[in-house]
Amino acid sequence: MLKILKRNILYIAFFQALISTVGSLFFSEILKFPPCVLCWYQRIAMYPLVVILAIGILKKDKLMPYYVLVLSLLGFVIAFYHNLLYYSLIPEAAAPCAAGISCTTKFIQWLGFVTIPFLSLTSFAIISACAWISLKSSKEV
If you write DSSP's letter for every residue of 42-61 in order, what string do you get? Predict the structure, then answer.
């Protein structure tokens, strides 16, 4: 079972990136939630991951997990910072959202804690973990 998971770990990362991309487009284009500045930066890190993962899987690129890790860890750091702002763990004055929608605007809050920044953080964490596992398992072979 573990061997099957390791062999298909990049597919999990791909589907996570695809679901995250479609989800962010759903929130902004269907539900009309305007993205804040930090959301835009997270999108900049997430959207290319779909293409990088798809091409890397098709071409069996052994270096692809490195490319994925760079973008997913960058997105993770931005999402982590966004969550700190969102949950008021750092003051809103530290937010880069000077104009437009605030980075702390609460659009959804499922189960009392699942928010858009939390979803983003979780997605980047899953993708980063998948890329890391892929790198570690390829070195074991």
Answer: HHHHHHHHHHHHHHHHHHT-
| Each residue's pLDDT expressed in tens, for the chain with a length of 141 residues | 567 777 899 999 999 999 999 999 999 999 999 998 899 999 999 999 999 999 999 999 999 999 999 999 999 999 999 999 888 888 877 767 666 677 777 787 878 778 999 999 999 999 999 999 999 987 765
Q: Which CATH class is domain 2-140?
A: mainly alpha
Write down the number of H helices and E strands in the chain: 5, 0
Helix (H, G, I), strand (E, B) or coil at 114: strand
Does pTM surpass 0.85? yes
List the chain domain ranges: 2-140
CB 132 within 8 A of CB 18: no
